[in-house]
Write a structure and sequence with these properties.
GO terms for molecular function: RNA polymerase II general transcription initiation factor activity. With 712 residues, the protein is α+β, with helices and mostly antiparallel strands. Among the domains are: 30 residues; 138 residues, TFIID subunit TAF5, NTD2 domain (Serine Threonine Protein Phosphatase 5, Tetratricopeptide repeat). 25% of the residues lie in helices and 31% in strands. The strands form 11 sheets. Strands 1-6-3-4 form a 4-stranded antiparallel beta sheet, with helices on one face. Strands 10-11-12-15 form a 4-stranded antiparallel beta sheet, with no helix packed on it. A 4-stranded antiparallel beta sheet has the order 16-17-18-19, with no helix packed on it. A hairpin with a 7-residue loop joins strand 22 and strand 23. It starts with a helix and ends with a strand.
Length: 712
């Protein structure tokens, strides 16, 4: 029995008995290094009794006995494996031996995972069991029916897999054909994968299969509905279904009114059901960090200095009421030194002053004052445009292409120039005032620079806040850091083994995040070639990544149809948001850090309250994947761009006002979304035939959009 062997090997390793471990490995032909789960000592005792006390029944335990050596210490006496049936088992043995029990944890090893399907009932009765439960749920009261209907999909999948695993292929086929049409439309893609698993051999190594088996499907049900279900299954003695409910489902029971069909539909649809309520309980510091105060000598006359001093004063009350950056410490902000952030350089301070000047001339947006939109259309992009980014000051735009190139354009009259060669630099007077201008080589000036280096399509690009660096990530599994001074590649970060779908710089620079097909997101620092954090938990590709404005958190969207929020400090997942019915492709934090907007292939834009861990809005209008989301600089307007060739503007102030975030709503997820989101829609702007892949608000609130013209 492989499980017993692995347990013994793990125990030998823990006890530093390497020689015995090697002999046993050779005998058992287990030469790989993978020992699966972990081992934990449960109890040791004096001679006479080895007690496995207060341990969860149903686990496999390895009992090990040692005998005292004549010299000193103990030698291995014997070992045996058993499954403990009651919580307080006692195991006796001969005297002069010390006993210990070690629990062998369940490993997400394919064969171990699948073996859970061994206990099975009569295959011919599966259809009867399922249709009996279906009939019971459909005839129950309306208030319970909506909640109990959530059971249909996970039970259907597990019963089908159980039939396939136990090689009842014809019964499995008949079961699938009879009931797959009853499942919700948003599970169609998963069911298509499931329908291809028709033999036991197909199940081994199938990722979707493993996900479903190792992560318990979460259902949130009121206590009344749960009691009703339990009573029905026990009366009917429908043990087959009851076993699946207990073994493979996690039922998150809450006290209070059952939820309505609309409330449930808003929250379900992910690969593993809803998020457990515990998952969204941790405290999140969603406030903004205090802006550093600095005096920068202004290069022009004094009157401009006075003017500059006056401008932020005028601007301050204007910005406070929309919760943007202010001089007061935000009570929800993380401590300033919670994570180490890079110090501001002189050039950063100058840029902040420029930013303040621009902000003073910023257009105040609202329903009566919509932004102008400037659309950058990539014409003749036969290389296949796959990613776009625009610098914060809107001076440069970058495109990532399927032909593996990265192209950088200047969108101001100022051309892109490289630094001079080393020989030419040695001739420059280093003390001159315009040394930064002199080091640039005029001969290299051009509107476009092409960066070569990747060996596959470029799926993500991101400029650093100081505009000195550019990140790009690719199908080749690497993230590259390019210098915008020399337009050369400085570093290739290798950590992902598969395509990297997205990458983004922190708003403070230095840190960046990447996410890919290997289902994890990684946090990097530009001066480390290994990742600082690995965020693992998604059940499918990490398709998009975003830093929170205070840089202490990272949001990731995934093809498992969930959004997770990770704490940069310790790598923990602090929020799981479910509700989208397709892979997530865009994320945007509001400027005040309180809210998150997400877009997916289902064409919906969902709004989330980060502090309470709740969905607070749903914006319907797009008819295709939402690839781009961006809040205006003060957070009054949310812009969304989609594959349906439109840009839509939404009233963010109205969407977030008068939110019901009382304790009851937070505890049960009884969210009440407005029936119609059309009153939040401020405008729809169509392109001729250009899907929108990127949106960006300039510092003065002009909206820039970008996409490649498609001739079909």
């Amino acid at each position: 029995d492989r499980q017993t062997l692995v347990a013994v090997l793990q125990f030998l390793r823990r006890s530093n008995l390497r020689e015995s471990e090697e002999i046993l490995r050779r005998e058992a032909r287990l030469l790989g290094d993978d020992l699966g789960g972990t081992v934990a000592t449960v109890a040791t005792s004096s001679p006479g009794v080895a007690a496995v006390a207060a341990v969860p029944p149903g686990k496999v335990y390895l009992l090990v006995y040692w005998k005292q050596n004549k010299g000193s210490g103990y030698v291995l006496h014997s070992a045996s494996c058993l499954r403990v049936s009651s919580p307080n088992s006692k195991i006796t043995h001969s005297g002069g031996v010390i006993g210990g029990a070690v629990v062998v944890e369940d490993q997400p090893d394919v064969s171990a995972v699948l073996s859970a399907y061994n206990q099975q009932g009569d295959p011919t009765l599966y259809e009867e069991y399922y249709s009996g439960l279906k009939h019971f749920i459909e005839c129950s009261l309306d208030c319970h029916r909506a909640e109990l209907s959530q059971l249909f999909y996970p039970l259907f999948v597990h019963m089908y897999l159980e039939l396939v695993y136990n090689q009842h292929e014809s019964e499995a086929k008949s079961f699938f054909e009879r009931f797959h049409g009853d499942q919700e439309c948003y599970y169609q893609d998963d069911l298509r994968v499931l329908s291809s698993l028709t033999k036991k051999e197909h199940m081994k190594g199938n990722e979707t299969m493993l996900d479903f088996r190792t992560s318990k499907f979460v259902l949130r049900i009121s206590r009344d509905s749960y009691q009703l279900l339990k009573r029905h299954l026990q009366e009917k003695q429908n043990n087959q279904i009851w076993n699946i409910v207990q073994e493979h489902l996690y039922i998150d029971i809450f006290d209070g009114m059952p939820r309505s069909k609309q409330q449930i539909d808003a929250m379900v649809g992910s690969l593993a059901g809803e998020a457990k309520r515990e998952a969204n309980k941790a405290k999140v510091f969603f406030g903004l960090l205090k802006e550093p105060e600095f005096d920068v000598p202004l290069d022009d006359e004094d009157e401009e200095g006075e003017n500059e001093e006056g401008k932020p004063k005028k601007k301050k009350p204007k910005k406070d009421n929309v919760g943007s950056k202010s001089k007061k410490q935000d009570p929800n902000a993380p401590p300033q030194n919670r994570i180490p952030l890079p110090e501001l350089k002189d050039s950063d301070k100058l840029d902040k002053v420029m930013n303040m000047k621009e902000a003073a001339r910023r257009v105040r947006l609202g329903p009566e004052c919509l932004p102008s939109i400037c659309f950058y259309t990539f014409l003749n992009a036969y290389q296949g445009l796959t990613a776009v980014d625009i610098t914060d000051d809107s001076s440069m735009i970058v495109g990532g292409f399927a032909d593996s190139t990265v192209r950088v354009w200047s969108v101001t009259p100022k051309k892109l120039r490289s630094v001079k060669t080393a020989a030419d630099l040695s001739l420059i007077d280093k003390e001159s005032d315009d040394v930064l201008e002199r080091i640039m080589d005029e001969k290299t000036a051009s509107e476009l620079k092409i960066l070569y280096g990747h060996s596959g399509p470029v799926y993500g690009t991101s400029f650093s806040p100081d505009r000195n660096y550019l990140l790009s990530c690719s199908e080749d599994g690497t993230v590259r850091l390019w210098s915008l001074q020399t337009f050369t590649c400085l570093v290739g970060y290798k950590g992902h083994n598969y395509p990297v779908w997205d990458t983004q710089f922190s708003p403070y620079g230095y840190y960046f995040v990447s996410g890919g097909h290997d289902r994890v997101a990684r946090l990097w620092a530009t001066d480390h070639y290994q990742p600082l954090r690995i965020f693992a938990g998604h059940l499918a590709d990490v398709t998009c990544t975003r830093f929170h404005p205070n840089s202490n958190y990272i949001a990731t969207g995934s093809a498992d149809r969930t959004i997770r929020l990770w704490d940069v400090l310790n790598g923990n997942c602090v929020r799981i948001f479910t509700g989208h019915k397709g892979p997530i492709h865009s994320l945007a934090f509001s400027p005040n850090g309180r809210f998150l907007a997400t877009g997916a292939t289902d064409g919906r834009v969902l709004l989330w309250d980060i502090g309470h861990g709740l969905m607070v809005g749903e914006l319907k209008g797009h008819t295709d994947t939402v690839y781009a989301l961006r809040f205006s600089r003060d957070g009054e307007i949310l812009a969304s761009g989609s594959m349906d060739n439109t840009v839509r503007l939404w009233d963010a102030v109205k969407a977030f006002e008068d939110l019901e975030t009382d304790d009851f709503t937070t505890a049960t997820g009884h969210i009440n979304l407005p029936e119609n989101s059309q009153d939040l829609l401020l405008g729809t702007y169509m392109t001729k035939s250009t899907p929108v892949v990127h949106l960006h608000f300039t510092r003065r609130n002009l909206l820039l959009a970008a996409g490649a013209y498609s001739s079909q």
